[in-house]
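ingest -> fold -> write
write: protein_1
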Amino acid sequence: MKGGSSDALWLAGEAGRRRPLLVLAASAQDAERLREEIAWFAPKLRVHRLPDWEILPYDQFSPHPDLVSERLATLWQFAAGAFDVGIVPVATALQRLPPRSYLAGRTFELRAKARLDLGQLRAQLVLAGYSHVQQVMSPGEFCVRGGLIDLFPTGAAVPYRIDLLDEEIESIRTFDVDTQRSIYPVSEVRTLPAREFPLDEEGRAHFRESFRERFEGDPTRSRVYKDVTNGLAPAGVECYLPLFFDGTATLFDYLPPGTALVVHGDVAVAAESFWKDLKSRHELLRGDRDRPLLEPSELYMPVEDLFVAMKDHERSDLRHSAETALVVEVDRRSVEPLNALKAFADSFAGRVLIVAESLGRRETLSQFLGEHDFHPALVDDWGRFLESAHPLALVHGPVALGFVLRDEAIAVITEAELYPGQVRQSRRRDARARSSAEGMVRDLAEVKPGDPVVHSQHGIGRYLGLVTLDLGEGEMEFLHLEYEGGDKLYVPVSQLHVISRYTGATPARCATPLRSFSTSTRSASRGKASRSRSRCRNTKASLPLSRSRKPRTRRARSSR
């Protein structure tokens, strides 16, 4: 098992033999990839990633509340042993954390049919750093309206509505933050602190005392000191986290006994590089008297201390290479664009699984492969493929790179091998962005002249083929799109990412409702009329056309 995403499969198997397992990754990108892939290969495993703050050290910005929520939930799961695989980037592992006692002392549970003192609950929520608002929208907020309590606990995916009957919790239901409608009932709710530091009276007093001891001069001239004294959390206050506590903790203080450790990639080099940048940033920003800085070692573990802490755990080192030996690239300029893929499938002495990035991409690939006499069976997930006897299958999942399992005689091929020139799209939480990525055209071999397509700005048009234009810098290839009324649009092949397949219900190509170019331009550029009027009326291009030469139309050879 070498290269590609085989490391995630190995880690999934290792977690089945010894758990809990902590994976120390060299980069945040590797950590996120492993989290997605391990959970896909082994859905029954509880896989959690401790995210970074996603701000620079000593930054005057605070991390997003969703990140703080996810961090606190993950730390609680680590401390409770409620995980099978924990994944932490090394830069995050170096960071000093609030002590376990802070998390334990500000975590409590609410259960249906239990008695509840509303005044005591308010006090507990304020102590944990929750904000009382008119309408709950994000983690760390609560609202009390008579006998109803809306609460969005830190670390929760959805908010909860608690219905009181006198002093008893009659029911607890989740609700939608947009519609404010209840969804489904639950039996209990766990609330975690809303911040990684306390802003109650005791926490503020400790901060003031520590600040005066740590820094010289008049503390009242510091904006950070004054804001914390007044109970406010100024932007970037997280870089003063040690001042709120008698002592901080490290990641290893949160791990249960017997946790096995896997070092993924060149963690030592990544840690040294992080510390080099950390020291440089400290030297650059340390002169601001209004915002004095703590020493780097007060906020982060030295690299030597990190490796000393590792010695208390059973350790394995996993060297990973992103290189794969799979040569299956789709050649859109060929009459048979799948020649390389077919040759590999015929010569490989085993089973082949093709992994699309999403369900929509799986359907697109299935249609495209079928048009070229390549018919993989559709399967739902990795487990179903292993249970089946299909020699060739197609699935969707978050696998970034392909690999070959020699012992099991299985080859896994992803879109990164089929379309190596394309950048893999990052997964976004926005459902609209996900649906757009699912229909994206990755290669011209996936569309044929006459197919309806959707331009991200101008809407539905018809793809007529490739044309070659000379704009004064040599000949370039463009996609020729036609809109209602004969309007034309020329899109550079380099901007293929703005084109997606039309997925409407219209069965016939000729019946597809094309968009009026003038209408699409108005809707896309409303409020920018002066710029719109400067464009040509009937024939439009993503780049200005040269009048010296007439476009030469070239039929795409891959459309046969």
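write: protein_2
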Amino acid sequence: MPSEQPPVPAGGPGPRSPESPGWRPPARLRVLIVEDEPAHAELEVRELRRAEFAPDWQRVETEQAYLEHLGAPPDLILADYSLPQFGASRALDILNDRGLDIPFIVVSGTMGEEVAVDLMRRGAADYLLKDRLARLGPAVLRVLEQQRLRRQQRQTEEALAVSASRYRSLFEGVPVGLYRTTAGGEILDANPAYLQLVGYPDMETLRNAKAASLYFDPEVRAQWITLLEREGVVNGFESRLRRFDGEIIWVRASARMVRGDSGRVAYLEGAVEDITERKRGEEALTRAREADRANQAKSEFLSRMSHELRTPLNAILGFAQMLESDPLAPEQRESVGYILRGGRHLLGLINEVLDVARIEAGRLSLSPEPVLVPEIVKETVELSAPLAAGAAVQLRADVADVPERHVMADKQRAVQVLLNLVSNAIKYNHRGGTVTLSCKDVAGGRFRISVRDTGPGIPPEGLERLFTPFERLNADTTGVEGSGLGLALSKGLVEAMGGAIGVESIVGQGSTFWTEFPVADGTNRPGEPSDRETPRPDAAGASLKNRTVLYVEDNLSNLKLIERVLARRPGIRILSAMQGRLCLDLTREHHPDLILLDLHLPDIGGAEVLRRLRESPETREIPVVVVSADATPRQIERLRADGARDYLTKPFDVKKFLALVDEILGDGRPRS
């Protein structure tokens, strides 16, 4: 039944709680009264108004009507204990069943104490006797305040529960170990990731351990605490922990020291990450680097030992094999046999030494002898002619006018120097330019060979730097390939042979490079041995006509050995190069049918030469046989995989060498 008094507008003053002066209950109070006497209900409403409430009330006296009004829950329920059809006890049960938090006050004419206690226990907020309704207003104010505090507490608890749940979910779900300990080392809490990290089966077992006992080095824990006390927060502290099973692991820890209101340390909390694999990787990388350095030193030792010992041994055994194949007197054949047996025994000793270690040793050996100048000039011109033609540069050298002079030089090295000077004059020239070779006697018992070009010339400030290793005087911008080693190497070779090298240049007109060699005593060329072999082709090599073999080797003895061996194949033309770059130039110009390649060259290594040959469509089909003193299995496998047709280790067997040459050159036609 609706109230007869108009309700107070919302927002009105309303009563004030004495317990919470700043809080006011709702000005419009929706009240449901369970009462069968309308007059009694009016009395209750009057008391509410006296307490400055503005009740918007309804009266019910049946369960059905009560249930209907609970659909829009009221702010307050006032229920008579005993009605003919319905009463407070039943109404309270319904309220509890529905889980509604509505202040419920029992108002009855008579009610025993036990009944009242029972109702209060079951959830009633208060009970009043009808003859004491003056207490109704304060009671309502109190129960509404209690409801407010109860709801506030419930909201706070729910928020805390949500926060705690989120924290716990993060705490337990994060893959990083999290922990909390006292400053004294008692473990308060840890997440599953931390338990897994330290290998403890459960939290109880971990709590029975002291934090310090987890450290492999107890002093590290003390350092850790000292650092935290000083800094407050520490990140990235690395240490070793001992797991429950005894395994030692590396961890990276970050933590902070939490202090209470008094400023004393309340606890430590932090995160721990297992970095054992990273540490193992770092250690493995360090070991690998050390091993690589050791292996590199060993490899260099092996390579140099192999090269320096096998190279001369190759000449000894090679020439001995050549002698063995010639008609010899019994005593001579016996002597050759001693040479071969001794050489092969020495080879076995070298192999054993190479298995143990390798040292850096040896210098480039030279073989100075009287060399006829027209011969080295002619060879230089012939080898350079294709390069000059390709660059549209005219190469001038009248060999017939070259004086018949003998100079003291290593022939192959002298040709190497002249080739370098001529090739530079061609490469740094312009199309239509000229390169001129000239010769003359100079003071001091020397003979000068000059190479003059019509290139751009060299500024005076660059001349003194010209023979410095890797110095190209900004030639990198010209597109001309080079390493800056050629002139430095030529200078070293010429000076090692007792000569000199120099340059004169005028910017805009060209440059003249010259080299001087000591004139040999006497003018006659040393006579060849009277019993020098006349090449005799054998049946196996009779079909090798018009074939070209390029031998890339910087050792004169080995060059002569190959020349002597291939003399048994008169159809073969031999070209030689003592530098890797010269090999590439000669290959492009002459297209040899076979390349014999040494690995230890003065400018670029043989492996790099092989790579460039295989990368170029113009040269990739030319078979390359590596002839090297480097006998390491890894080197042999690597170069074969990189495209070498075969790999011969010095000292090589002459018969097997010729068989390989016959096999390679005998299965195709001459190259164009």
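write: annotation protein_2
The domain at 539-665 is CATH 3.40.50.2300 (Rossmann fold).
The chain has 19 helices and 22 strands.
pipeline exit 0
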